[in-house]
Amino acid sequence: MPLLPTFTITYAPQRLSLPDADVYLLLRFIPEAEQASLWQRLQQEIAWRQEEIKLFGKTIPQPRLTAWYGDAGKSYTYSGLTWQPLPWIPVLTQLREKLLSTTGISFNSVLLNLYRTGQDSMGWHADDEPELGPSPIIASISLGQERSFHFRHRIQPDVKQKLILPSGSLLLMAGQTQHHWQHQVPKSAKPLEPRINLTFRVIR
Ligand SMILES: O=C(O)CCC(=O)C(=O)O
Ligand SMILES: [Fe+2]
């Protein structure tokens, strides 16, 4: 299997050495002292739901809880369903503003994922829906249990990069990343604590 250069962890934003991709990791986007209260607010204030998905003609519950917030009118079509976002609430508006001051990007929607245990996961996919435009920009914040995050190249699926996303980190995916790469959060056989992930997006 072709090996990509090892990714070294620092606390400055780092660009990953992935070919055909623009991916940056900032490990301490949410300071440690703020993580517990943010976690608590998100757990309590978000309208978490377990949605169903159709897989090979069968309807099954998604292996995680989700919620969708954003500007009115910015709907999103995904798995054949069109989702209307819930209106912004202060805890999410504050994070959106923090992202604006850090990245200069004004995000208008956010998909939240709650991975309850190591058995919750997200399968291989790319966030390349037409409403995300030709170069989707996604800002992904992680809180709680650190989890593995894998990239694989679309036309050379044995070219992979594996990361750990720790609590407080920000992963930015931009440019042509979604065209050339897929990503996943695999299940873990180990018992794991819950993790909340927020993926802020720009819907056209
Ligand atoms: O949980 C994560 O880190 C990834 C979530 C994700 O890929 C998505 O919401 O599209
Ligand atoms: Fe994704």
UniProtKB/TrEMBL annotation:
It comes from Nibribacter koreensis. InterPro entries: AlkB-like, AlkB-like_sf, ALKBH3, Oxoglu/Fe-dep_dioxygenase_dom. The keyword Transferase does not apply. PANTHER family: ALPHA-KETOGLUTARATE-DEPENDENT DIOXYGENASE ALKB HOMOLOG 3. Residues 106-204 form the Fe2OG dioxygenase domain. Keywords: Dioxygenase, Oxidoreductase. The keyword Cytoplasm does not apply. This is Alpha-ketoglutarate-dependent dioxygenase AlkB. GO terms for molecular function: dioxygenase activity.
